[in-house]
Write a structure and sequence with these properties.
By secondary structure, the protein is of the alpha/beta class. It has 10 helices and 12 strands. The two termini are 24 Å apart.
Length: 326
């Protein structure tokens, strides 16, 4: 098992396949003309498979593939199919733009649940946020997945003054459509122009929803990061990921592997452990994993507290979101 100094067992690995993306969401990418990591510095298919097997042997039971946008990698299908042979729950987070090219691969890999990032239901605002005109394609691909009975979580980063006025539009979408909307508080990363007054908190989100709907709290599962709710009669559900106002670090079971093979023991951790170089050098990987997890901070990477209104983003040492992998 992979256990940290607070007796938290880590059995969930998020693997970033690339820091490349075909969208340009400002809260994820620091700039439009971003220089992506050269292919030679990325984990190759056999290296991803080798590292994943090591983590699985140490107790990992769930793997999520992320990016950037994971499906822009030319060998994404090979990676998905290779990892699908492991005894884990395999899933993926995507922006939805290339789903139509990968449905058969997902079905072959027995991936039945996906997270789709979609911060607005308005085409013009989608172009403002992503700097790309792909809204209709994403909505079409969401419907394609629903028609094929995939379980879909829709990730919505809520930002004060940008899309907080669409919260109930997303709730209305769940009335007749079995999507599971997850409202995410805006988090600080390098270059994403985070300020505390842009955070729209869980309490504010629930207040907005409560003005129009009567909702019921659902039972959380172990290690859940999202607080889940249902509205009687709705086909879908909603949830809130309250990283900034009410973190869930006490039950954390997550580890991250960046596309260039660095292990992060927390989304906000300052330290990284270079597993890819060690693998290429023939060194033992398990001691590096164990050492990384033993050094894990109690909460939020040890860099800030839940008192987010007094956070100075420029003092947080981390990567941009796109190079971490969500």
């Amino acid at each position: 098992m992979i256990v940290d100094g607070f007796n938290r067992v880590h059995n969930y690995l998020r693997i970033s396949l690339t820091d490349n993306c075909n969208l340009r969401c400002f809260y994820c990418m620091p700039e439009e003309d971003y220089i992506f990591t050269p292919a030679s510095q990325l984990m190759q298919v056999d290296e991803i498979e080798a590292l994943a097997k090591i983590f699985v042997a140490e107790g990992v039971s769930k793997i999520r593939l992320t990016g950037g946008e994971p499906l822009v990698r030319r060998d994404a299908a090979d990676i998905i199919l290779a990892l699908s042979k492991l005894p884990v729950q395999l899933t993926i987070t995507t922006n939805g733009t290339r789903i139509h090219e990968f449905v058969e691969v997902l079905e072959q890999a027995n991936i039945r649940s996906l997270n789709i990032s979609l911060d607005t239901l308005k085409a013009e605002k989608f172009q403002l946020v992503t700097r790309r005109n792909q809204f209709d394609l994403v909505k079409k691909n969401i419907q394609l997945l629903l028609d094929k009975n995939f379980h879909l979580k829709i990730n919505v980063v809520v930002m004060n003054g940008l899309n907080d006025n669409e919260i109930n539009d997303f709730i209305e979408w769940t009335k007749d459509t079995p999507v599971h909307v997850r409202f995410i508080e805006f988090m600080p990363f390098s270059g994403n122009r985070w300020t505390s007054n842009k955070v729209f908190t869980m309490q504010q989100i629930l207040e907005v929803i409560g003005e129009k709907y009567l909702y019921t709290r659902l039972q959380d599962e172990k290690h859940d990061t999202a607080k889940k709710y249902m509205i009687p009669g709705h086909a879908g559900t909603f949830a809130v990921i309250s990283t900034m106002s009410a973190n869930f670090c006490g039950d954390c079971n997550r580890m991250r592997l960046t596309a260039d093979g660095k292990m992060k023991n927390c989304l906000f951790s300052k330290q990284e452990t270079d597993l890819l170089t060690a693998l290429r050098s023939g060194k033992e990987i398990v001691p590096l994993i164990q050492q990384s997890i033993r050094s894990k901070a109690k909460e939020l990477g040890g860099q800030f507290t839940a008192d987010f209104e007094h956070i100075h983003a420029e003092e947080i040492h981390n990567r941009s979101m796109i190079t971490i992998g969500g």
